[in-house]
């Protein structure tokens, strides 16, 4: 059973809340101080990705974040995006840049697919223990990350 | 911390100084500001559109992939218009994000605003922000 | 559907996380600044009460907090304590003090029943719109509180 | 902010100065400290147990019912031993918590440490913390 579980409607403002909670829980769980920046960024990326997918596919469900203590501090972020959004082939950010839309498009932030790809690339480079899998219940994907506890 | 954006000049070049967190929540604001600087109408005493821009990230506390996406959008737009974009950043934890994504190979990143001007001399700066005084404002 | 939902294992440390989240979400929802202290204290009390009840009755389930936006900002805290813990007769803190155990008892904090009663008394005095009811599913109680949005 | 506890003296009286949040998470620490002051062994050069205590809440940022419970426990214990407890607090938001619960009728609450000594003269302070110098330490 997770120690802390956070669900939030898929809006960018709540991603900050998720980051704040993840860092507070990680610190209390005993994750070393020097890894907390990584936890903040990684959990933020996984949540931004989930928000972007929910917005892209018009899913109103809450994005679900589970944090579990020891032996490692483990965070799982579940989205309800379709299975195609699985990271079968990890995107190359430089490639994504080449294909990204222009800054003048009217969208509130860069095309969601590009953001999702860029976020995954960043996550992959950042977190040693990272796994992106289809959700157990067949809807959406799960990003699982873990960090050592001192 | 929310995002705060200030424009200034360094050696006649327009600088956008960013303070706070550039994330999925605040990136739209940065995007809007970049658009306004690059696309603003020329004439009626309004400052001309910026073609050679420096973005100073020295006081950025957090940057995520959405923020990277906006910076990339700005770079592409400026290049398409024959302009340049230089980023100022000396913070290891922000630089790391460019390195991890390989975007440090795409952006010109320098440690100080002064170095930004040297990095992209922009000799052909005829479309530059000429309303700005040639001296720096700091 | 709530905007943000937080579940946490019944440990005192997580009550701080709940307070932090409630204030962040309330602020973004538009609750006036001068009410945020009240939100912080009230959500903390409701969560401390739930933690105390879970500890008293050895319930391992997560304490569940739901936050919903407008027309008022509404927070619901669900515990799994038995129905007797309902606030049928609201306790009087001064009475509770008279009956509270001595400081020398070895317990980590004052007898849970006293803490629960004191917390409820504080909540009642603090929050204008407060309701304590049996949970819809028959297990435990729900504390519902709401505040205006500017 | 976590809890921080410092003991000092004001006019020979022991003062426990509390900084930070007294909540369900930190209240056990406050409880332990109160117990240690009130119950500590007398002799072998150790300071005698405190009977007339001032708790300074001026720097408390948050107080919940669990914290109230610990303060009440301390008051009852001291009274049972023939001692006194005075709380120092001038912050409206903390005072409000005592008012709402009616506990302002049970505690002696004064705005400054100096006023605390006047409030409970404790003429019979023969069991007081005599290891402390008579002058205040601030
Ligand atoms: N990264 C974050 N994640 C979640 N909540 C945050 C974060 N940063 C700040 N907050 C919360 O948002 C609220 C406002 O933050 P603040 O930095 O003061 O900016 P502002 O007041 O402009 O919204 C605070 O209550 C704080 O707890
Ligand atoms: N009231 C609170 N609720 C939830 N988390 C909190 C609260 N206060 C602080 N935190 C979190 O706990 C962490 C540590 O808080 P801090 O005040 O620095 O004390 P410490 O470092 O001693 O634990 C921070 O990451 C902060 O986000």
From TrEMBL, chains A, C:
Q: Does the keyword Cell wall biogenesis/degradation apply?
A: no
Molecular functions per Gene Ontology:
protein serine/threonine kinase activity
Under InterPro entries, the record lists:
Anti-sigma-factor_SerPK, HATPase_C_sf, HATPase_dom
Q: Which UniProt keywords are given for this protein, alphabetically ordered? A: Kinase, Serine/threonine-protein kinase, Transferase
Q: Which domain of life is it from?
A: Bacteria
- Kindly give the Pfam families that the UniProt entry links to this protein: HATPase_c_2
Where does the record place the Histidine kinase/HSP90-like ATPase domain?
A: 8-147
Question: What is the protein name given in its UniProt record?
Answer: Anti-sigma regulatory factor
The organism encoding this protein is Actinocatenispora rupis
UniProtKB/TrEMBL annotation, chains B, D:
Q: This protein is called what?
A: Anti-sigma factor antagonist
- Region Disordered, residue ranges: 118-138
**What family does this chain come from, according to its entry?**
Belongs to the anti-sigma-factor antagonist family.
- An annotated Gene Ontology molecular function: anti-sigma factor antagonist activity
**Pfam families tied to this protein:** STAS (PF01740)
The UniProt entry, under InterPro entries, shows:
Anti-sigma_ant (IPR003658), STAS_dom (IPR002645), STAS_dom_sf (IPR036513)
Ranges where the STAS domain occurs: 3-120
State the SUPFAM superfamilies in the record: SpoIIaa-like
PANTHER family under this entry? ANTI-SIGMA FACTOR ANTAGONIST TM_1081-RELATED, ANTI-SIGMA FACTOR ANTAGONIST TM_1081-RELATED-RELATED
This protein's source sits in the domain of life called Bacteria
Gene that specifies this protein: rsbV_1
């Amino acid at each position: 059973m997770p120690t802390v579980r956070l669900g939030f409607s898929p809006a960018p403002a709540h991603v900050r809340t998720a980051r704040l909670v993840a860092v507070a829980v990680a610190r209390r769980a005993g994750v070393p101080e020097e890894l907390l920046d990584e936890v903040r960024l990684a959990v933020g990326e996984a949540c931004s990705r989930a928000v972007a997918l929910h917005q892209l596919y018009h899913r109103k469900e809450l994005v679900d974040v589970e944090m579990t203590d020891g032996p490692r501090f483990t965070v799982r972020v579940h989205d309800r995006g379709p299975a195609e959004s699985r990271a079968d082939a990890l995107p190359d950010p430089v490639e994504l840049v080449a294909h990204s839309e222009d800054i003048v498009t009217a969208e509130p932030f860069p095309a969601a697919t590009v953001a999702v790809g860029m976020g995954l690339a960043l996550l992959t480079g950042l977190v040693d223990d990272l796994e992106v899998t289809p959700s157990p219940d067949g809807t959406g994907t799960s990003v699982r990350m873990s960090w050592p506890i001192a | 911390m929310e995002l705060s954006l200030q424009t200034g000049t360094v050696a006649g070049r327009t600088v956008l100084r960013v303070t706070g967190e550039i994330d999925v929540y605040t990136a739209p604001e940065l995007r809007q500001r970049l658009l306004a600087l690059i696309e603003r109408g020329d004439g009626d005493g309004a400052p001309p559109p910026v073609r050679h821009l420096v973005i100073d990230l020295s006081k950025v506390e957090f940057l995520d992939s959405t923020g990277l996406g906006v910076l990339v959008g700005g770079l592409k737009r400026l290049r398409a218009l024959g302009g340049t974009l230089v980023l100022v950043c000396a913070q290891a934890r922000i630089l790391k994000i460019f390195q991890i994504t390989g975007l440090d190979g795409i952006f010109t990143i320098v440690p100080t605003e002064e170095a930004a001007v040297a990095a992209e001399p922009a000799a052909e700066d005829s479309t530059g922000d000429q309303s700005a005084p040639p001296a720096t404002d700091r």
